[in-house]
Amino acid sequence: MTADTLTEFLNSNFVSIDSISNVSLKIKDVNYNRKHSTSSNTNSDDLINPPVIDKLKYILSQELSDSTYTQSLSDIDALLGKYGRLPAITYTRDIVIQKMTLLKKIRLKQSYHDLSAEINDFEKIDLAKIKDSSFTKDQILNIVDKLASLRQSIDTLDVVDDGNGGDEENSHNLYIQLQDVVYNHLRPILQGEFSNSVKGWDVIERENKSQQHDPSFFTTNMEKFKQLLKCQYLSTKSESIDNYWAVDALLDNFKVKFVYHFEGDNSETNRIDKPDFPLNYTIGYITNNFKLANKFWMKSFKDITKRDEFSNSFIFSILKILKGKFKPQLKEIISNKFLLSYFVKTLKKFDETIIGDFNYSNVHTLTNDLILSNENIWNSWLSNEKIFVNLRYEEINDDKDAFKIEYDVVDYGTTKPTKIALNLKNLLEGITDSYSTLPVKYQMKFLNEVQLKLLNFYFSKIKHGLNALSPIKSIAVEGVSSLERICRIYCSSQFLIESMSLWSEEILFINLWHSLNKNDNFQSTFFESVINGYQVDIIDKIPKLLKSYFDLQLNRSMKFYFQNNVDWTLHENELNLSDKSQLEMLIKNLGADLKYIKSTVSSATFLEWKLLLSISVANYLENNIALTNKFSIAGAAKLRDDVQFVFESLDLVKDFKNYGKLMEILDVYEGKYISGNIKEYDLNIIRQNCL
Questions:
Q1: Tens digit of pLDDT for each residue in 587-616?
Q2: pTM for the full predicted model
Q3: Among 159, 222, 408, 512, which one is least packed by beta carbons within 10 Å?
Q4: Is 354 exposed, middle or buried (0-12, 13-18, 19+ CB in 10 A)?
Q5: For residues 150 and 125, what is the distance between their CA atoms, to the nearest angstrom?
Q6: Which residue ranges make up each domain of the chain?
Q7: Distance separating alpha carbons of residues 596 and 586, to the nearest angstrom
Q8: pLDDT tens column, 74-105
Q9: Are strands 480-481 and 476-477 parallel, antiparallel or unpaired?
Q10: Which of 142, 148, 149 shows the shortest CA–CA distance to 126?
């Protein structure tokens, strides 16, 4: 008989307790069928002695029990050891195991049935005794003990069931049955009695010292508190519970007052546009009673629950009351984007208070349960926030003074923002504040769909302004100097780059980046790619614009100097080094530019740009005077003195490569030593210019 045939046989013949009682008869049928279906050819079973066959028949004919099962397997294993895995022996062993497995399952079903009946009796008989009359402490203790016994029986049966391949649904149904009985029949009795008994605990103790409760008040009620906790704990399979009935009962007095003020007909306090009214009232209640509640109830709570925190459960029960008020209003709130935005803002502020001031650590906050857990409401809120943000950005962008540089909002020596950059920074930080306390996936939504999009819009605008500036063709356009326009572009970008760099160091954005790039080891930051875009496409192009501007300024400012210095082949008696009036315009214009730059950009950037100006001045004087004129020794001396006067008056950088080269050109004209800073082709030109 194959394994499949054996399984089919057992399924069809041993399906119930009644089938087991006829096991012997079934075995005889099997033996008869095997005998008459055996092939005429000799097989290994023919080698077994008749006493062995008799032994196997005896084993199969026995009424099965735990003791005979063990003995039967032992006897069969001995035969296997002696004769090997002959079909008759292995077949008999399979039959015995299958029969015992079926017997255990039938016993389990009976146990489920019996335990379910016990739970019914607990409801109909035990609980009936305390329903309609006042009950004693001993009666409650008996009820709790009976409940504990039922729970232990279910747990034990659950373990047995798992070990025997039983049906998990059976034990699950017992847990549900017990939980329903306790919740629907025992809980209302104990919770109602405890609520009445403890009424006023949070008022008399706090408000009237002369009418404090008798010490026995809390001693008695703590025991009731613990019994109610224990009943709930015994009726649930979870090791952790969010909402405790006993804690709910402590808040019945608060709930009555809350409903009166904020769910009744009081039009002054029950206003859909003022969610802060009930929330502020609730914060006041928690503030006044939080320490008191922990003082009286926390230890008893911990004795029973072990894992959960009383303070969390206390606030959770309060939040349940608040959610009961707000949930019916959500449909109306979501229909008005201003109501929704204010509602969420108020909820978040409340959640931040209970988390920050009262260490509430449960994920079930008002924001989570009323907004985030409802996809429709969450999407509506996000959509509203996008609309508000876009409108605000348009206001910032359309301001006629958007690119005016704000000098008074940051410290001296730092990058001065334009008005648009400052307002955008404030807008972006406001958005961050609005989602900073949300779970990561919601933070990511705001960052990607709101903030990064704004930064991209802004980038496009600044880049467009940069392209409009290039090339620099005049000192001023429409009354605004080209230098100021360059600084506006630079400051609008650099201020945001510096802001993004600071944001990248905040724990919020570090965590967000790490959640996306767990193997990055914090080598990069969230805004790095955005910063690089601003740097490469805008900031790195500023020096070229500045050089163009400086060249224009030099052309404009040197006209008078050129007009009065046509001939550099002076004799020594013609040399006048004291008159620098021809350089006044240059000193004045470049001095004003440097002063403006210093007041506008950071100290480090000012030094970079001053070096850029120094190079421009040195190159300009080299290309437009030193290399394009013939010089006498006296003429070279005059130019050297004028160059040094300009550099010292403006405190420019005398760098070796550019200023040094100019000085060496003049050294050649004066017949002095050459250090090698001049290229060969330049040297040939210089020698041709010597008299």
A1: 999 999 999 999 999 999 999 999 999 999
A2: 0.75
A3: 408
A4: buried
A5: 14
A6: 3-108, 238-373, 392-543, 558-689
A7: 15
A8: 777 887 777 777 787 787 788 877 777 777 77
A9: antiparallel
A10: 142
